[in-house]
Amino acid sequence: MNKILACIDTRGNTDAVIDWATWAAVRLECPLEFLHVLERHPEVAAVTDFSGAIGVDAQESLLKELSGQDEQRSVAMREAGRELLSHARSRAAAAGAQHLDARLRHGDFIDTAIELQGEADLFVLGEHHHASAQDRIRSEHHLERVIRGVSSSVLVATAETFEAPQRVVVAFDGSPGARKALARLAQHPLVSGLPVLVAMVAPDTTLARQQLKEAQDALQAAGVAAETELVAGEPQQVLPELVKRQAPTLLIMGAFGHSRLRQLLVGSTTTTLLRVSDVPVLILR
User: Fold this and answer.
1) Domains contained in the chain, number
2) Same domain, yes or no, for 93 and 220?
3) What is the CA radius of gyration of the chain?
């Protein structure tokens, strides 16, 4: 693995993102880099067109004042970004992570993530449940675009605190893609040694039970302690409750195939599960 790239900001669950990234870096024994992107938001952009509204002299004076305020704001944001990255490195180091780095970038967050995807095999981001409506929309937009845009696995911290998982829940639908995800999971060092619950959301049929038994047998043949559970309903409704009963855990979903789970993850309702889940979600590629 090249490295883990943890994308941090100033939202309420930033420390949880740092802790999850650190946990992954320690288990994988790989470098960890923290990324903070300074984006220019339209709501704080300086107004630059006052023609016809005020006199020429007043316009020039106001533009200079706004320009000075904008520069002060930029300086303050850069300093806050450096302090945030320093905090992240210190927290990660105290938890045992090594080979730490940090990067402060200007520009669009999504463009930056896509640009850097070749450097990292795992992105770690946060979902902030208690954000304001505007911040939540922006956060969900970022999450969905990152999941769609990068080819790396993505781990989303969905709570404001970190608790090391004691088991893994895998969302399984019986498709070839889901089987491929299971095969990769069985060899993935991030969850090595953790017991696995293979959860299938489907009607209780002979085929469904057979598919679950085959999944369990495949994991056990690879040396993974595995159990299964079959539950009816819609994934975004029943999975969060099922997973919550297993806490502390990590929900894993493979980004393969075209099933209802695939549509949930990379379709228009990508953020539905992330919004309602109380446990972190790893989208495995």
Assistant:
1) 3
2) no
3) 22
If you write DSSP's letter for every residue of the chain in order, what string do you get? ---EEEE--SSTTHHHHHHHHHHHHHHHT--EEEEEEE---GGGPPP---TTTS-HHHHHHHHHHHHHHHHHHHHHHHHHHHHHHHHHHHHHHHTT--SEEEEEEES-HHHHHHHHGGG-SEEEEE--TTS-HHHHHHHHHHHHHHHHH-SSEEEEE-SSS----SEEEEEE-SSHHHHHHHHHHHH-GGGTT--EEEEEES---HHHHHHHHHHHHHHHHTT--EEEEEE-S-HHHHHHHHHHTT-SEEEEEE--SSSHHHHHHHSTTHHHHHHH-SS-EEEE-
Residues 140 and 271 sit within 8 Å (Cβ to Cβ): yes
Reported as a single tens digit per residue, the pLDDT across 189-246 is: 998 899 999 999 899 999 999 999 999 999 999 999 999 999 998 877 888 888 888 8
CATH number of the domain within which 252 lies: 3.40.50.620
- Residue 285 located in a structural domain: no
Q: Is 129 within the bounds of a domain?
A: yes
Residues 106, 38: contact at Cβ < 8 Å? Answer: yes
Q: Quick check: 167 and 195 in contact, CB under 8 A? A: yes
C-alpha span between 258 and 136 (Å, rounded): 27
pLDDT in tens, 110-161: 899 889 988 999 999 987 544 444 454 455 567 777 877 888 889 999 888 9
Structural domain boundaries, residue 57: 47-71
